[in-house]
Amino acid sequence: MRDWNDARLFLAVLRAGSFARASRELGLDASTLSRRVAELERSLDAVLFHRTTRSLEPTERALRLAPHAEAMELAAVALRRSASEDAPEGVVRVTCPEELASGLLVPAFGTLRAAHPEVRLELVGGGRVLDLERGEADVAVRAVRPERGELRAKRLLRVRYRAYASRGYLRGRARDADALEWLALDDPAGRSPEARWVDEVAGARGPVLRTNDTLDLATVAAAGWGAALLPDAMASRHPNLVPVWPERDATLERALWLVVPRKLARVGRVRAVMAWIEDVFRGVDESRAVATVR
Known about the structure:
CATH class of the largest domain: Alpha Beta
Radius of gyration: 32 Å
Number of domains: 2
Number of helices: 12
Distance between the termini: 61 Å
Shape: rod-shaped
Strand content: 15-25%
CATH topology of the largest domain: D-Maltodextrin-Binding Protein, domain 2
């Protein structure tokens, strides 16, 4: 057979058993289909169908050709599927912290639409961690790099933390950890590295204040109510906050990761959304994103 079109017509007639039924399925005129099949027979120098007034009967040659035509059909389907996956079109479901979605991704959505108008985005916030490998989402922005599973991760942002307090609070005060009053993020489950670190240095007394918002934590520390473990970028927005131990390197480092299942990493629409997210973070001041690293 010369090409897939020949194979497609041949299989349609073979399966339908008549030119009339096959023509309806193909959307062709029956006489046109009959002529095309006759041309195929001449090109192959073989009779493929015994024609009667009521039906078509495939010849032995037709039955021998059928598996090869079906292989061409499968290849054509695979080609169409691959082309569809390569094209940036369709729905992409992204899970990320709500603050990140509303503060960074939603305002930048116009750039994605302009570049890829056929891509439809679904943003999923909330505290529940969606299972990418089970298909609950296609792409995730997370503060924890996956260690297991068929997932790929790329770092979007590195966040460095130090202990900070106001100049007034530290004036004349010993810099020993147990001599300071500590402010902390509220983390009942104890999963946050920042909260665990403060709990350790605060000792049995514990923090004098807990809050679930990093921005509030920085504001209270800047007001002189104690020391807090804060991202460098966030502390830099408060001129009166200084490192408790300026001679030390960063106490803690966190990151935001862009995570995707390996099987989706090469799909066109997913690649387009991932590239867009990377572009958004490339132009973002670290201090705008640190509040989401929890």
